[in-house]
Amino acid sequence: MACVDSEVDLWTVPLVALNVTVRKKLGLYLNPKNTVAADWTAVAEAMGFSYLEIKNYEAARSPAQAVLENWQARCSGATVGKLLSVLTEVERTDVVEDLRPLIDEDVRKYCESLKKLAEPPLQVPEVDSCVPRTPERIGITLEDDPEGAPEKFDAFICYCQSDFVFVHEMIRELEQTEYGLKLCVFDRDVLPGSCVWTITSELIEKRCKRMVVVISDEYLDSDACDFQTKFALSLCPGARGKRLIPVKYKSMSRPFPSILRFLTICDYTRPLTQDWFWKRLAKALSQPVSS
């Protein structure tokens, strides 16, 4: 996607670019039953949801937001441009006109974040071996204090590259909202130039209170995710300390990993519980770590 400020193709911008404010305002416009203008049910139907699915969403606190989140999770074509097209199709141009400035601002910020990820990585002044010189390494993350104070995080995020769009959403929902959590996202926070396995172990064991594991079919094929998960489990056998939290955000065709079946998962795939998903996850990550 070419994110040039004057020529952004909204049909290529994923729905994850829209922040909480826009989603809540969409709910304010679409949730009320309106005999004149189309409501959320018309939008859901235009998005391809079945009658039974739409009936199930009626129990959600904000049906419009629930529909939007599930559409984003299950449809690869769920883009900002497609959303605007759906709203126009159901004759809610009033919503498009009122929210367009906020949407354009969200898209701009999203594009800027992509540009930062694409920038050449920062270089460490000295690249040494994989063997740490001190009990706790410094200079391995972007915000490490040069004087020696290591950067700490609320959670290490274990994910594979194909699930990075959901990781972006996690950043938006947990860091950029009232929860104010600090996540360790390897592709964003870790400096290049050191042994991957050593750095990963250091972050999980010493820098992060907990680890969130993003489960998907692709996760099952990732050697890095397998190592991170097993290492985290070795630190808390029997789930003592509740350090590891599995998250399922999309349907799977393969069995759930057996080594995680004894843990309570945070399931984003159930429409009727999606309203509680981020609050539950944030609360779990905010709890003090027991020894």
From TrEMBL:
CDD domains: Death_MyD88 (cd08312)
Entry-linked PROSITE patterns: DEATH_DOMAIN, TIR
GO cellular component entries: cytoplasm; plasma membrane
Subcellular location: Cytoplasm
Domain TIR: 151-285
Domain Death: from-to ranges: 25-103
Keywords from the UniProt entry: Cytoplasm, Immunity, Inflammatory response, Innate immunity
Protein origin, superkingdom: Eukaryota
Role, per record: Adapter protein involved in the Toll-like receptor and IL-1 receptor signaling pathway in the innate immune response.
PANTHER family linked: MYD88 (PTHR15079), MYELOID DIFFERENTIATION PRIMARY RESPONSE PROTEIN MYD88 (PTHR15079:SF3)
Protein name: Myeloid differentiation primary response protein MyD88
Organism whose genome encodes this protein: Eleginops maclovinus (Patagonian blennie)
